[in-house]
Every structure is written in structure tokens, then in C-alpha cells.
Amino acid sequence: MVVEGNHEIEKQAGNQSFVAYSSRFAFPSEESKSSSTFYYSFNSGGIHFIMLGAYVPFSKSEKQYKWLERDLANVDRSVTPWLVAAWHPPWYNSYKAHYKEAECMRVDMEELLYSYSVDIVLNGHVHAYERSNRVYNYTLDPCGPVHITVGDGGNREKMAVEHADEAGNCPEPSSTYDEYMGGFCATNFTTGPAAGKFCWDRQPDFSAFRESSFGHGILEVKNETWALWTWYRNQDSTGKVGDQIYIVRQPDVCPSLITLPKGSFADS
């Protein structure tokens, strides 16, 4: 299952874009009541996956946002207790590369995903690895999702190695603008240790682990409340774990707008 990124824009004659992406892959758009190849959803085991488009309109008045509202409202968490969302550019990124580039999307969509207790967010775009603590609106929150940037599978553009919190690496705010991602929304932090600044001066609290290595990850859902995420460096294959964490759902502590009957995962 795929989702579009910046490399799939591929502008063509007649102001067309994403033509190869939309033509070469199959998408369960119709099955998930989406009118687009850029955003859709599907179930796999006990997970409801939501694929979102960062390079097509996503504000609250747009079709994508309204589709997301309907899709989340129709999730049956007695069948798929886990909610995993994926899109290309990360919202929580401490690397200099693509720093705060997707801030407009975060501003428009984060509250909706949080209100339905999305558990895990998967991203790419930054050519390195980073895993967040549970976070919402840049604040550590036990009910926020774990954001995982795993854009380190290998590429021709080399690895992202510089962090925005290192001396001299904080980008000029105006440089974070991306014309394909909703305009310019990146501002200084308003709360927390980095209040009044555009970048932290140390590894941000939301960033739990980061490493500039090519790698890949495996997500294993164990039951309705426990999942194991493991990241491996490519050079190590699966012989040595690079990062590993159990991600634990707490539906009693973090109720979403849809509740999960106890014991339903094992019975489904």
C-alpha cells in the first residue's frame, strides 16, 4: 500500500501531476469511500490504516478532511482496535532537513487524529530514522500517538545527519515553506523549554530516539493493547536491533470518540 510523496509530483504537460503514481498502483479508494488516490484507508488484522495526502488540500473545508472525519467516525474498534495513520512528510522532526515543513498539515489535522486516539503515525521524507515519545501539539501527552519517521530505506540524496537543535543548524523560518504543502505555517514555539524559539537547543523532549542510518522497521501487533515496533539498520539485517519499543494502548486512560469493548480483539 502506497501514499504519495514529493517525488511523485512529476509535473507534466497540461499542468498535470502525480499521473504515474495514480496510474501505476491500485488503491482501495472506492472501498473506503474516498474519491481520491491520495487518501484512503484499509484494514489489516487488528489495524485500521489511514493513508493521508500531504500534497493535496487538507484544510478543514477540503474534501480530504471531511473524508477523514467520516472514516474515523466509522472505525469499529472492536474489530480494529489499533489506528495507524501514514503520510509522507513528518510533523515531528528534529532534523534540519524538512524541519517544520508540514506544519500547516499538523495545524489542520492533528486535533482530529488526537480526538480519535490514533496510536501510531508513520512517515518518510526525512532520510534518517526518528521515533517520538507520545506527543500532541509539541507537548508530551500519554494519549498522543507515537510518531515514527522511517524515511531511511535508501536513496540517491544521501542521509540526513544534521539536527536543527545543533549550533548553527536552526533553519531560517521562511526557508521551511513548501509550495505543495499548504503554505507557510511554521512559527516559534509558544510553550515548553523552547518557548520563543524556532528550534530547541538540545534534542527535543518529543524526540525519543534518532539515528542517521539506513534501515527498516517491523510493526507486530500482539493483541488489542500491545504492539512491538522494531527498527533495524540495513547493514545489520535482522541480526541486531537498532531500536525497539512496546507501544501500549490505554483505552481506559485515553478514551477516543469510539470506545473499544473489552476482549473483542481476541474474539474477532
UniProtKB/TrEMBL annotation:
InterPro entries referenced in this protein's UniProt entry, alphabetically: Calcineurin-like_PHP, Metallo-depent_PP-like, MPP_PAP, PAPs-like, PAPs_C
Catalytic reactions on record: a phosphate monoester + H2O = an alcohol + phosphate
The entry's keywords: Glycoprotein, Signal
PANTHER family reported for this sequence: ACID PHOSPHATASE RELATED (PTHR22953), PURPLE ACID PHOSPHATASE 15 (PTHR22953:SF96)
GO molecular function, one term: acid phosphatase activity
Pfam family, one: Metallophos_C
Top-level enzyme category: hydrolase
Organism for this UniProt entry: Hibiscus syriacus
Identification of the protein by name: acid phosphatase
Cofactor: Zn(2+)
Residue stretches making up the Purple acid phosphatase C-terminal domain: 197-244
Acetylation as UniProt keyword: no
This enzyme's EC code(s): 3.1.3.2
Domain Calcineurin-like phosphoesterase: start-end pairs: 1-129
Lineage of the species this protein comes from: Eukaryota, Viridiplantae, Streptophyta, Embryophyta, Tracheophyta
